[in-house]
Amino acid sequence: MSNKMQAAFMVAPMAIALRAQGVPVKIVYLGHRYGSAVVVQKDGPVKKFTDLRGRVVAVPSRFSDERLILFRAMKINGMNPSEIHLVEMAPPDVAGALAAGAIDAFSMGEPFPSQSEMSGRGRVLFHAREYWPDFMSCVLVVRQDVIDHRPEAVQVLVDGIARSGLWLEEKERRRAHRTQAADFVGRYYYRQDPKLLRWALLKPEDRVKYEPLSPRKADFEIVTKLMRETGVLDREIAFEEYVDIRFAEGAAGQKPWKYEAGWAKAQ
Questions:
Q1: Residue 265, CB half-sphere, CA atoms under 13 Å: how many?
Q2: Closest by CA position to 143, among listed 240, 19, 13
Q3: Strands (E), 99-216
Q4: What predicted TM-score, i.e. pTM, was given to this entire model?
Q5: What angle do CA 110, 115, 118 make, to 5 degrees?
Q6: What's the confidence (pLDDT) of residue 187?
Q7: Residue 189, Cβ neighbours under 10 Å: how many?
């Protein structure tokens, strides 16, 4: 909002809410699909979704897809939203809170479900895609002034992300590339144990998907409808008002990066 950064990944409902409030930003691409889950205590009493009645469930933010998936699951299971007590909690805190019994479950994006599983304390009750096919969470958001005055830079950024996604999904090298990515970003970007990121990317390999990443109107209409129903969006908003599809269309013909661990540069 203060223009200290011009592009960012953030959860889709937050980006839509910012645009609805007049902040000059647009969604230009997705970060990934899937990659979120509801996690419960491994040996706890929650065996199915309806067992969450009367229990405390943590979400990262009221402006998150991880909150919306709970409302979607409640509707499918015939539950009233008042039957689950939702609390907002910083993602790094949820695994510990679940292990300590401070919460009964959490709905979060990776790598926090994997962290809870790796510790032996948590169990995935369901992955988001089980209730929401083609579930998406993070989106790439760019300020409108950059889109207007430097569209070629935005296209380079989107092209690079598209090629990275295709590289991670390259069938014959998928597992090797995901392992390389986990090892590299764990050490140099996220300061996370590479073992944790390997878990998130490989157990199973489609736990997080990096294609297709083009924003689709039907997918976002599900999000905005749920946002309206759950009180985090106070007006109807057209897809074209918060999404600029041109850059995704421009990246449609991209090919995966040619890169293997140890190479000096990607081609």
A1: 1
A2: 19
A3: 105-109, 122-127, 138-143, 208-209
A4: 0.93
A5: 130
A6: 87
A7: 9
